[in-house]
Write a sequence for this structure.
């Protein structure tokens, strides 16, 4: 497949659209985010804590990515749950975090982020040791203050769904055919119209295009929505 241009995504605070790298530079200085942080910090209640800016991306080609804030006191298992919900979960496979990928030592899921990560560190998350999905998580920044949400993680930006085109007509593809891909070695991407009349139903029939690096793996069909 021809190299697509870099995927872009939107800053949830100010609505600007940028690449992953653009957002890594933008988010620390986004005025709308600063306002939100200031507001959160002025609230009573919740204690000051250390909050990490994490850049998350698929290890394959980096088209799929997230920028999130995560409370330092939250555990790796919270991040694991989040990744499963937004990208990965197909049938309850095992997963692990490590430094250094497959050869690295497993880090227990109960560890808190602040015990594990320093700015600049990169964690590897592996989901499913058969048809594996690999995710890289880099700590790109840290702040102390109050979290923006009651949840362990706040989504700050996410890649827009990469655009695929129908092999038949060039319209936007919303489906893909596993039989074309695995049986015939073709792209198998189809628009709604051509998916309806597509003749193949081996390999489980046609599947939806989803905004997840797990598309095409182990029968993954989404929904690829954030859990909160
Ligand atoms: Zn912004
Ligand atoms: Zn599976
Ligand atoms: Zn079509
Ligand atoms: Zn087909």
């Amino acid at each position: 497949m021809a190299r697509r241009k870099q995927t872009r995504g939107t800053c949830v605070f100010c609505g600007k659209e940028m690449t992953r790298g653009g957002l890594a530079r933008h988010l620390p200085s986004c005025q709308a985010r600063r306002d939100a942080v200031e507001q959160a910090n002025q609230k009573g209640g919740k204690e000051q804590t250390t909050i990490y800016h994490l850049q998350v991306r698929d290890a394959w080609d980096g088209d799929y990515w997230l920028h999130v804030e995560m409370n330092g006191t939250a555990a790796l298992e919270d991040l694991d749950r989040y990744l499963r919900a937004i990208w990965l979960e197909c049938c309850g496979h095992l997963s692990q975090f490590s430094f250094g990928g497959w050869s690295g030592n497993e880090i227990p899921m109960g560890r808190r982020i602040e015990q594990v990560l320093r700015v600049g560190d990169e964690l590897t998350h592996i989901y499913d040791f058969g048809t594996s999905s690999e995710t890289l998580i880099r700590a790109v920044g840290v702040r102390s203050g109050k979290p923006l949400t009651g949840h362990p993680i706040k989504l700050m930006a996410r890649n827009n769904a990469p655009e695929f085109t129908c092999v038949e007509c060039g319209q936007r593809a919303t489906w893909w055919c596993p039989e074309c891909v695995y049986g015939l070695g073709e792209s198998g991407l189809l628009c709604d119209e051509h998916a309806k009349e597509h003749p193949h139903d081996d390999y489980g029939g046609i599947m939806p295009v989803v905004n997840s690096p797990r598309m095409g793996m182990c029968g993954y069909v989404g929904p690829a929505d954030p859990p909160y």
